[in-house]
Amino acid sequence: MFGFDSTSRFAVSLRRWRGRIGISAPRVAIKTELPWHLRALSVVLLGGCSLALAGWIYDSGSRFAGFHIESSSQELASLRDQVELLRKELEQATKIASSSDSRLKIESTAQDRLVDQIKSLEEENIRLKADLAMFENLAGNDKGPPGLEISRLQLHQEGDKGQYRFRLLIAQKGLARDKEFKGNLQLTVAALQGNQAVVLNLPSKGELNLGQYSVLVRRFGRVEGVFHVPLGMSIQRVEARVLESGVVKATSSITL
After folding, report:
1. Tell me: the pLDDT tens digits for 66-111?
2. 160, part of any domain
3. Full-model pTM
4. N- or C-end of the chain: fewer Cβ atoms within 10 A?
5. Is residue 243 one of the residues assigned to a domain?
6. Which CATH number does the domain housing residue 242 bear?
7. 55: alpha, beta or left? (left if phi > 0; alpha if psi -120 to 50)
8. How far apart are CA 102 and CA 124, in angstroms?
9. Which of 171, 148, 166, 169 is closest to 247 using CA atoms?
């Protein structure tokens, strides 16, 4: 029989051929050669698709989370409109409140004035009723000796600048009622200035308004006027005298 020579040329060739097609054969990679511009285009397309996909994912996530740009912008614009509307309503309400406050102040002032007028009218009504009662009493007393009478001597302070207003009624009584009486009025004011007693005789020297101290009555008449005292002076007592040619015809006094 013939033996197989492992060192022969045939054996070596066989081993080489088996090594190329067997399990131990080396790996072979097959590559297809592409032009560079196609590869660049594919990269650009792949990048664009990736960016589009990322934008879609971001937009979907924003919508899901409630942070979508368009919806947020719309909500922001809506909130700005509401704020502007509320600001206008606040301005309108402020104007109405200010106007109402002004009207209330005006009405309150008018009401205070009306109350003062009503009070003044009530006082005037009381005074007129008292004057009427006195006049009726004088009208029924037309007998007796002639004479002059002072009644209802009053003194009121006006303001806080030392101004006082005096009022008094002068009536003729008895048989001299139909004769006209002409004379003048004198006031003696006893007051305190600090701890010092002061006496003022009116009208004083240099008095400008002497007409208010003139007395001219037929049957009866009212005399009134104003005088001033220094600030801080407190009046205690006032005496009124009616004189005719320097002779006192009637007197009356009040204590404050």
Report:
1. 555 566 677 777 888 888 888 888 888 888 877 777 778 888 888 8
2. yes
3. 0.49
4. N
5. yes
6. 2.60.40
7. alpha
8. 32
9. 148
